[in-house]
Amino acid sequence: MRPVHVVAAQLSPTNGMERAALELLRNLRTAGVSTSATVLSGSVPTEVLGCGVRSLHVARRTTRLAEAVPDLRRSLRRLPKGTVVVAAGAWAAAPTALALCRSGRQYVNWEHSLLPARIGSDRRACLLARVLRLPGCRPGRHVAVSDGVAHTLREFFPDSPVEVIPNYTAMSQVPPPRRRRRVGPVRLVCVGSLNKFKNQVDAIRALAMLPDHYHLTLAGDGPLEGTLRAEIARLGLSSRVMMLGRVPSVDSVLDGSDVMVHPSIVETFGYSLLEAAEHAVPVVAYDVQALDEMVPALVPGRLVPERTPEALARAVLQVTVGGVLSHADVDRSWLRRREVLAPDRITDLWIRSVLADGPADGPADG
To answer: What is the C-alpha separation between 209 and 223, in angstroms, rounded?
Structure first.
């Protein structure tokens, strides 16, 4: 099998993309694949120290992608011939593309976040996508983490092969334990970075339309923390909303929750939904790309077609008034997760689709 070199913008803190990159390195190594990696910014996590992973220690600022190119150019062009270079997302793919431009070496764009809604509302994502379309910078192939991302990539790069390979996900060996509705408040939870895409403001506004015994916990930090606190105060919900900030593990939070509310307007994979499913916590989410692949097939719950706080509140009531979802729903989604997201299956997809038949060294385009 061909060796793999992963380029990542950062590996800590361990959010979605970082977690996916670490899991890819770990699982490919377990399968006997020679792996190494370059991290643009930040430290190298302990678990991959001594595994051929190094950081360029570029400062985390807007210009870091350009600043990383000279060092990447030197290091990537020295890799043994036949090494598959995998750029983890557009933030790593753009400097990788520029570093390899006109070198005769190709790379794989492992894409997590390019969706129409993201490109339309995030100028940085739009700019990075344009870089990848420049002559000499186009990837040899793409790996998408969901069908929604794959659809976008096929529109942007009609001449490049696109493979859908889900991220590795921790899964229990037995179905999640059965849950019974507790006496007392109905506990809703929102997990994720506090930003405009995760859209926690709709969860807060939906709570204002629910009976007083409904409470909401927000787990995560981010740029909109102050804005969300102001909205909570404006709606008089301070006694019904708890903001935990960033937590090392959401297990205890999920164990104490009845429903996960996920009003994200742009989602690319859905780690938090899968974590909720592992705790048999039903999910109420907006019907957007990527999430429509999760709920209800892999994650028990309900999708909300109308993206408004009113519709979100109605869906929460529908899920909670009758109690938790049936045990059959929970068991059915667990069986499907075990089939679709089995680590051995994901590793096999990487080996068969990318490593055994990866792009040969040579120009990807003119």
So the answer is: 25
